[in-house]
Design a protein that fits this description.
2 copies of one chain form a homodimer.
Chain A (H helix, E strand, L loop, with lengths): L5 H11 L4 E2 L1 H8 L3 H13 L3 E5 L3 E6 L6 H5 L10 E8 L2 H10 L6 E8 L18 E7 L11 H17 L4 E3 L3 E4 L2 E13 L2 E11 L19 H5 L5 H22 L2 H10 L6 E5 L4 E9 L5 E4 L5 E4 L3 E4 L1
Parallel strand pairs in A: 4-5
Antiparallel strand pairs in A: 1-3, 2-3, 5-6, 6-10, 7-8, 8-9, 9-10, 11-12, 11-15, 12-13, 13-14
């Protein structure tokens, strides 16, 4: 088990008291530090935006939690077995995936999470750019070390997709759909994108990084001109501000739960859940592959994650890379 | 086209003159530098071990080429289309694969070669150690950026294996055999090992690194105690010292030729060539997999690179990871 940081322990204590009060003595005992040290931790939480009052003879009271992404707030009481074992939060980084890969090369353990408030070089699929303004969205990368063969790993994209859809549904009540291979849509517009990367040798995965970008509170003016596909945010569709902290915690817990299912039962339940979230299943689609185009009826996913399309001639095509749209 | 380094140009000029003489004037004109600069390049080649005499009125004469692995010597006249576009030679590095991966992350181009005289943390398959003493062997990593899907990449191990066998045969006349998935044997003892690594996203390979370790001139005393399998070197079997430079150049050319075949015709010819080099095809084998053991007759390779074994019950097992040995 990891050792929680002092600020995380304090936040957990606050969350566990029904009246919101925690005595300095209690915190001091729990952390095994002096009352002066407790006061310094409280001050650092206040500096991070927590509204904490000190009431003589009753102790500290947490009045307001800011919507900041910091490890202690994300980890406090997080119900995860793997995901979030370590959490790194950056104000700015080039790309959370690049950070996670670098940490993976240095031996980072299973479940590491890298989050950035903004990305200077946010990456989309196939070297495309992912718009990453600060203060509004979630840019997260989760490093996993599953005991699988490299050819199994691409299917983990479906795990991220299902987790993002579930987190959106839990936090907003909205029901997103998925678009093969790595997009999440609300009302047909892109609200989240996934970029999974892997480092492997021939018969062993070193690590997989699940890169997840979710447009939470971006407003219409923040989207650049000339996007390949229409884009939106949860706030635009839900008509309300989304708590980045709540969303992040929910998402990490959903990923963790699905990862446990994956490790115990394999990818079949994950692929089924993804197929149910895909509104193009059974519909006419057109798929732009690198050098060709396939038209037909989308049947679903093959066992290996390929998109299955039945052409007019009755042939079933297995597609491993391409852009799909309704025909 | 890359621009050859001055020392490479000089070595190429030496190799092109039938009498071994090249005038300082000629070198000066070819490089577009002063006679003093030519003299400095000649001096640096001498310092690297080249025996070069200066004969008044006739020019420079190359009398002896040392067996050192340096980029200019490897690249001079190398007949490759991709491999060797850049060559980095280290006296010592942690692992040529790690170096090549780091350079790959930084954007190194297709065909980069990393060579080290010795490795402080030479890597074998599955995190095992690869003995890497200095001055005797070849430790090389070749970075490729093939336009393929990640699940195709593991098959490139067979490409390295065939290339190593061909280079051994060309340089010594010996006929090695291959052992699935990544060993090269001479008289049943391991003479070379392969460790291919990959960085990829779901539907795109960023790069593949072909890691190749060949025991060229190691003597019996240099092998550590308690190796998993018997090991040998080309010099031990051939009874003669092997030129590291000749072997390296031959190997890179063989990899390049096979890579061209792979890009044009796919993996089928590579898998066929590998199967012909495998002396266990059609024989009884035992395969230790992670949690199970498979016994039967080795049939060959599946299209996806899996080892195919027909069990006594007549079932054909496809094996993706394991250690195979004669039953």
């Amino acid at each position: 088990m990891r050792n929680p940081a002092p600020r995380e322990t304090i936040l957990t204590l606050f969350s566990q008291t029904p009246d919101g009060f925690v005595s300095g003595e209690r915190i001091s005992a729990e952390l095994g530090v002096s009352r002066t040290a407790v006061w310094k931790h409280i001050r650092s939480l206040r500096q991070a935006g927590y509204l904490i009052e000190a009431i003589p003879s009753r102790g500290y009271q947490l009045l307001q939690t800011p919507d900041v992404l910091m490890p202690e707030a994300i980890q406090s009481g997080l119900e995860c077995r793997w995901v979030g074992s370590r959490v790194h939060c950056f104000d700015e980084t080039d790309s959370t995936n690049l950070q996670a890969c670098r940490l993976g090369d240095e031996g980072a353990t299973d479940g590491l999470v890298v989050i950035a408030d903004r990305q200077s070089s946010g990456k989309g699929r196939m070297g495309r750019r992912w718009e990453s303004p600060g203060g509004v969205n979630l840019y997260a990368s989760i490093l996993l070390r599953p005991p699988i063969l490299p050819f199994e790993a691409p299917k983990l994209t479906f795990l991220s997709a299902v987790a993002v859809c579930r987190a959106i549904n839990i936090c907003t009540g909205l029901q997103p759909t998925v678009k093969w291979p790595n997009d999440i849509l609300l009302n047909g517009a892109k609200v989240a994108g996934l970029l999974n990367e892997m480092s492997s040798e021939t018969d062993q995965v070193h690590y997989v990084v699940l890169g997840i970008g979710v447009n939470l509170n971006m407003n219409a003016e923040q989207f650049p001109e000339g996007l390949r596909y229409p884009a939106t945010s949860l706030a635009i569709v839900a008509g309300q501000v989304i708590s980045r902290l709540d969303f992040t915690r929910t998402l990490l817990q959903e990923i963790d739960a699905l990862y446990q299912i994956y490790l115990e039962q394999g990818s079949t339940p994950i692929l089924s859940a993804w197929t149910e979230l895909c509104d193009l299943t059974g519909k006419s689609v057109q798929v732009d592959c690198n050098e060709s185009q396939v038209e037909g009826t989308m049947i679903g996913l093959a066992e290996d994650g390929a998109l299955l399309v039945r052409t007019a001639a009755g042939k079933i095509e297995s597609i491993y890379a391409g852009d799909v749209r309704p025909a």
